[in-house]
Design goal:
With 424 residues, the protein is of the alpha+beta class. Among the domains are: 97 residues, Rossmann fold (3-Layer(aba) Sandwich), CATH 3.40.50.20; 69 residues, ATP-grasp fold, A domain (Dna Ligase, domain 1). The chain has 13 helices and 23 strands. The strands form 6 sheets. Strands 12, 15, 18, 19, 22 and 23 form a 6-stranded antiparallel β-sheet that branches. A 5-stranded parallel β-sheet has the order 3-2-1-4-5, sandwiched between helices. It binds adenosine monophosphate and glycine (GLY). The site of adenosine monophosphate (AMP) has 11 residues, from β7 and β17.
Length: 424
């Protein structure tokens, strides 16, 4: 069977490598892909949100399943597009339709969903420019820090955490009245600040049955000690040591089960991943956010720990018999360290030749922002590669990742040397 993966990051390279292990797959295509996927699959240079271009690729290459990496095509309705097209409607798409993708596409919708279905989350209210004064009044009922979230997709930048009430009021006004985040901040969710340690739990569901995938913790800030600007993610670790069985049981009972049941009650036929961002406050889970896809770089530690055939699991999602599929995970720890372009997450240069990654033996080098120019592998994005290793402990895995990184070079390479610092 031929399979198409949409996306171009480390996450998609990890999907591709994992799916390659399945003997049920004939040809693998990635659109648009990167220099890493180019080595192991067929890259096709189209934009994943150009659905007519996706259709052309699917028909031309006899694709029989589409796996969607990023959220944008899901929120824009790629799954709905397939179902509405006579030539595509029987080709399964791994990823929710528009109605399910709203869990990520609208913070207001996802908060309403959690409240309605009893999923623990921070107390909140939503505001627009029409009730800005009520927003100010609600802020006055909260204690600092204040959490303001643009309702719509804002490229991971739409959440503000502010220490002063005055600043929170000013920013609220900027968001709703002056469209600080464009249309995404027409509505703003204001919520209570949650204390605790953050982690992510990933679920694969066919709409009725689910598998809970390994948990992971990512490191979002550019600087060591979790300082500086937010990034897409500088590293990740799986499993998360403080997420013990008792905590994960609570997550399953209090979060995963009501989420899946809630989707069914609301007639949302959800086939794909749910990425649950959680706060662990003294052993009690509270949901920070849902994403409707896998995380990046979390995928680069979650997928390598899965021992089962991922394609077989995806067939279970498509055929709604995920409960019949075997699922196992290694006990080993996986760590990944992300190599970025100097300057990222602000301005950075591209087209720097990358060398040495082919000599890495004790880690998996996932490509993210890489491409091929004149036969050379060069940088093509802020996040360039994710270097994943296994170990019996976090320390052992990280030592391997850092040894492997020493072999890789390009102009202005940057990475955090302290991934996992808070866990070891
Ligand atoms: P989100 O895009 O909703 O994941 O928010 C981005 C980040 O802001 C999260 O990963 C948290 O670190 C932080 N955050 C969001 N909401 C809250 C909250 N209610 N309390 C504390 N931190 C939060
Ligand atoms: N690493 C966080 C995300 O994928 O959203």
């Amino acid at each position: 069977m031929n399979v198409l993966i949409l996306g171009s990051g480390g996450r998609e390279h990890a999907f591709a490598l994992k799916l390659k292990e399945s003997n049920k797959i004939d040809q693998l295509f990635v659109a648009p892909g990167n220099a890493g996927t180019d080595k192991i699959a067929n890259n096709i240079n189209i934009n994943p949100t150009d659905f007519n271009a996706v259709k052309k690729v699917v028909l031309e290459h006899a694709i029989k399943m589409v796996v969607v990496g990023p959220e944008a095509p899901l929120v824009a309705g790629v799954h709905d597009f397939f179902l509405a097209d006579d030539e595509l409607k029987n080709i399964p798409v791994i990823g929710p339709k528009k109605d399910g993708a709203l869990l990520e596409g609208s913070k207001d919708f996802s908060k309403q969903f959690m409240q309605k279905h009893g999923v623990p989350t921070a107390r909140y209210q939503s505001f627009t420019k029409d009730n800005l004064q009520d927003g100010f009044a609600f802020l006055e009922t909260l204690a600092p820090p204040y959490v303001l979230k643009a309702d719509g997709l804002a490229a991971g930048k739409g959440v503000l955490i502010l220490n002063s009430l005055e600043e929170a009021k000013t920013e609220l006004e900027e968001m709703v009245s002056n469209q600080k985040f464009g249309a995404a901040s027409t509505t703003v969710v204001i919520e209570e600040f949650l204390k605790g340690i953050e982690l992510s739990v990933f679920v694969l569901t066919d709409g009725k049955n689910y598998k809970i995938l390994p948990s992971a913790k990512d490191y979002k800030r550019i600087g060591e000690g979790d300082t500086g600007l937010n990034t897409g993610g500088m590293g990740a670790i799986s499993p998360v040591p403080f997420a013990d069985d008792a905590f994960l049981n609570k997550v399953e009972e209090l979060v995963v089960k009501p989420t899946i049941a809630g989707l069914q009650k609301d007639n949302i036929d959800y086939r794909g991943f749910i990425f649950i961002g959680l706060m662990n406050d003294n052993g009690n889970p509270s949901v920070v956010e849902y994403n409707v896809r896998m995380g990046d770089p979390e995928t680069e530690v979650v997928l390598p720990r899965i021992e089962s055939d991922l394609f077989d699991l995806f067939e279970g999602v498509a055929n709604q018999n995920l409960d019949t599929k075997s699922f196992s995970v290694t006990d080993k720890t996986a760590t990944t360290v992300v190599l970025v372009s100097g300057g990222y997450p602000e301005a950075y240069q591209k087209d720097k030749e990358i060398t040495g990654f082919n000599t890495v033996e004790e880690s998996i080098v996932y490509h993210a922002g890489t491409t091929i120019k004149e036969g050379k592998v060069v940088t093509n994005g802020g996040r360039v590669m994710a270097v994943t290793s296994f170990g019996n402990t976090i320390e052992e895995a990280l030592e391997k990742s850092y040894r492997s990184i020493d072999k890789i070079s390009y102009d202005k390479i940057n990475y955090r040397k302290d991934i996992g610092f808070d866990l070891v």
